[in-house]
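Researcher: Going back to the complex we discussed earlier. I've cleaned up the inputs and rechecked each line, so this should be the final set. Can you rerun the prediction on the complete assembly and write out the structure?
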Amino acid sequence: MLKLLLNEEIAPSVAADLRRREGGMVVAALTEWEGGNFVGKDTAEILREAADQEWTLVTYDRLKVPPTLKNWTEEECLHGGVIFVDEKSIPPAETAMLISALNWLHQLTESWEWTNRALWLG
Amino acid sequence: MAKAASSMVVSMRLPTETAKRLRRLANRYGWTPSDASARLVEEGLRRSEFAFIDFRDTPAGRQACIQASSLAVWEVMQIVRSYKGDVAAAAKHLGWSQVKVQAAVHYAEAFSSEINEAIADNQATDFVALKQLLPQTVEFLPKKSASR
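Model: Rerun complete. Updated structure for the full complex:
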């Protein structure tokens, strides 16, 4: 089951909006996930906890996240899946566009096994 | 963090244990002790001169970040630019005070090349670059699928 963890650069209102939609999406903003305890933590810590709890990270960050995942992939460490959002196609300010894209993605991939997946949402 | 273009020698007396710790830190990053101390002084000065700014090790190197947040300054600026410079809108997006976002803007004004370079590097990691790093990466294009 797809459980979306929205990284801190994504507006928490996106998570709230997606939860209100039909279909029962499981979505959390990083600021609220685990009582907000992972705000300010480094990328590897967030990815490790997300993997343990089978959450898939949604992020615009392609500087800090991919190097960690590359190392994990080479070391055969599992992660909970990551969705990289392309800011050129879905600008951070266009939250309605991101909500629509994630809703669409959820409908198509809800039954997927998300462990170790990496997806480019453009 | 970019280094200053010109430099001058300043001698410093450090406690022996501090000097050992500095050498260990320098070794960890592959810097000379002199380079390490220059970087630490520069970071300390920036922390003192700019509100809400902190420096952290990241997989992409040392980055200027916003205190009590996981975000680097370049990430905040990517959001501000997406709102066409509207600090209030960016603050609402993040659920932050405007003053915190404004602090990122001021840092980015002072060190524009550092921030622009990080944003450009992030943008350069497109689908092709990403799948080279992470071979399992697949592409999903909602707009194209919707128009089919």
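Model: Worth noting: Residues 11 and 43 of chain A are 18 Å apart (CA to CA).
Researcher: Good, that matches what I expected from the previous run.
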